[in-house]
## 1
Amino acid sequence: MTYMLSSKALHTVNMEEVCSSCKGGYFHIAPKITKVAVINLGMQKENLMDMVNMKCSLNVFDEDFSVNQLNMVPHDIVMVSNGKLDAEKIPMVVDKIKALIGKKKIFGIGLGQELVKEAAAQAGVQTWKQEGDIMISEENKLYCCDMSQQNQLEEIMKYA
């Protein structure tokens, strides 16, 4: 028999029982890896590597992404990155973000913060609270920061 345990479950199990119940088999302990769908508007390679080093698995989409395609890829979070975006594409990206609101956590950083807030406003989201440098609308699963400081990526990923 084979068991798979998450690192979180490891704290709650009786190891003697697990070991005795898998005689002749084995158990696997899986680390927590956050799956992130990144809508990349120009995020620096270093920031992507920082996320990988924070135990994130990334699927990176460009600004022309399809909401259906994004939804088919397993993810815990959608991150709308910082960068630049052609002004004529902004309404299209905002509409796509609006379609994702409330379904998964959405993180907006830099330009992504502005687009997430615009999509939220169009969707009728009015309640935001400030926690340090992070703006949060918990009931809508929205988290935003401006990325003016390097450690803000780490700060926002604490909400993953």
Note: The two ends are 32 Å apart (CA to CA).
## 2
Amino acid sequence: MIRILLTAAALLAAGSAQAQAPGQPKPAGTRYVDYAKDPHWVVDPLSKCAVYNTRPDPAITVRWAGPCVNGMAEGKGIIVYSRNNRFAAKYDGGVSGGARNGRGVYYTANFDQLSVNWKDGLAEGLGEWTYGDKSYLRARFYRGEARGDVLYRQGDWDYNGPLNDVGAVTSHGGSPRPARLANVPYQQPRLQNPDGSPFGF
């Protein structure tokens, strides 16, 4: 199901897929931040540069390869996320105020990837998840969540419609069939029959 924002995106937002809760801190920009007291910030022990994490997790560590301004990651670079010293995810793209901002690609531990614009660490706008089996999901994201109708292509089948509701699947040259695209955050989506049973290709 959709590995949105991001398997290891679950570490962040991945982007990738849950909106920031009201009142949750936002990236600091250039204001002073006490990184030790705010769990949203993770400091790279080598560069001493702070990276903003939309989903705090004390098991996460980061490595930042890029410019550092006012103690925060800034500009184009690469963030590598580890959980308990094992690779969890990677982000390659724009960063501002320590958070993913601008165009960038987020890679999960399975090397599925989400290419999208980012705002304050969350996927924003039209983006595309691609998966190891060459299937892909195109969706419009708002604050890290896919919204509205999506296009999901798996092999010769195209699904058009909403997530977790009934849309239509067509094969090249075939008639549309009703289907449901089930989404569990951070996993590849699954095509199902409208009753939730596995879709028969």
Note: Residues 8-141 form a domain with the Histone H3 K4-specific methyltransferase SET7/9 N-terminal domain fold (CATH 2.20.110).
